[in-house]
Structures are given as C-alpha cells and as structure tokens.
Amino acid sequence: MDKRMLKNLGPEPELVLCPYCEQKIITKTSIKLLNSTKLFVCLMCLVITLAPLALVVYKESDRIVKHKCTSCKKTIGTYLLT
C-alpha cells in the first residue's frame, strides 16, 4: 500500500489535499465489490439451487468505496462499507 494513501476517509466525497498532485480537491468516489465476494457470487450462480443465496450475498456483501483525485485521477484512499 502506498504511504501517500489518505486514512480516515468516509463513504462520501470529501474535500482533501491530494498527496500526489497537491491540489485541493473534492474526491470522486466509486463503489466496488471485494474480489472474494465476486468469486463467491459467481460460484453460487453456477449452482442453480443456490442462486437466491448468491443474490442475498451480493446485496449484503462488503464493498469498498474508492476515493480518487479529480485532478490527477489517482486513488488516494478507500473506505470499507459493511
């Protein structure tokens, strides 16, 4: 992990000083599923009888909010939604 990544970011866009380009920006956020969750959902979909379980896991799974700089486009922090 890059030492310039910011800590204590929440789930919403935030006003920060980018550690890469040193511009004062409001972060752009995007939500991604954890890779382990994606794999589990795919495996459950392969087994037809467990497809409803896969949908529940997908909806209630851990997700990562990525904060990106709107100036240099680098990821400057993450937040885990549970």
Automatic annotation (TrEMBL):
Entry-linked InterPro entries: LITAF
LITAF domain span: 1-81
TM ranges: 38-58
Record keyword Transmembrane helix present: yes
One Pfam entry name: zf-LITAF-like
Superkingdom assignment: Eukaryota
Signal sequence interval, chain numbering: none
Record's keyword terms, sorted: Membrane, Transmembrane, Transmembrane helix
This protein's name: LITAF domain-containing protein
Organism: Chironomus riparius
